[in-house]
From TrEMBL:
The keyword Cell membrane does not apply. This is Probable chorismate pyruvate-lyase. Belongs to the UbiC family. It comes from the Bacteria. One of its GO terms (cellular component) is cytosol. Keywords: Cytoplasm, Lyase, Pyruvate, Ubiquinone biosynthesis. The keyword Lyase applies. One of its GO terms (biological process) is pyruvate biosynthetic process.
């Protein structure tokens, strides 16, 4: 990664989010990636031999720490903050920031609080009762790169999870002809 994780996280937190209906996509490839309804982890896995997770943070937080734009999508309760870097064959591809309300942690067949270095998508999308809504897209120029991001709410067994993903400079979304 060219910048520090802190700088990428800051860019993600300050992103100007837009609905896909008003966002101007650069090409059909970016549209496909950013509007993907399934697991981003499973999609990324197709472009490498080894998809891995670097776990940066996984701890409980108070709802008062949420940004207003985040709290609009989640219940007002303690939540698990999970920050990761998804890597394809050792290259940093995606910075992920996931908010899982405490009520969404209970009653699951897998303890999402102890997900560790397993991609969240591998666990969540194994279930048949997952849907995505509140999809938002963003773009930021940072260190000479225009980076794309998306944020959406996943519903897992009727419980919400808010996921934000920043596509880092080496991510396959930027590679021409990788369709």
């Amino acid at each position: 990664m060219e910048l520090s994780v802190t700088e990428y996280l800051q860019a993600l937190r300050e992103m100007h989010w837009q609905s896909p209906e008003v966002f101007v996509f650069e090409d059909s490839l970016s549209r496909e990636w950013l509007t993907e309804q399934g697991s981003l982890s499973l999609l990324l896995e197709k472009y490498c031999n080894n998809l891995s997770v670097e776990l940066l943070q996984s701890d409980m937080r108070k709802p008062t720490e949420l940004a207003l734009s985040e709290s609009e999508h989640l219940p007002f309760e303690d939540y698990l903050l999970r920050k990761v870097i998804l890597k394809g064959d050792g290259q940093a591809w995606v910075l992920g920031r996931t908010l899982i309300p405490n009520s969404s942690l209970t009653g699951e067949t897998h303890d999402l609080a102890n997900q560790g270095e397993i991609p969240l998508g591998f666990t969540v999308f194994k279930r048949g009762d997952v849907s995505r809504d509140s999809l938002q897209i963003g773009r930021v120029s940072i260190a000479g790169h225009t980076l794309l991001a998306r944020r959406s709410r996943l519903w897992v067994a009727g419980s919400p999870i808010l996921v934000a993903e920043l596509f880092l400079p080496n991510a396959p979304i930027y590679a021409q002809g990788n369709q």
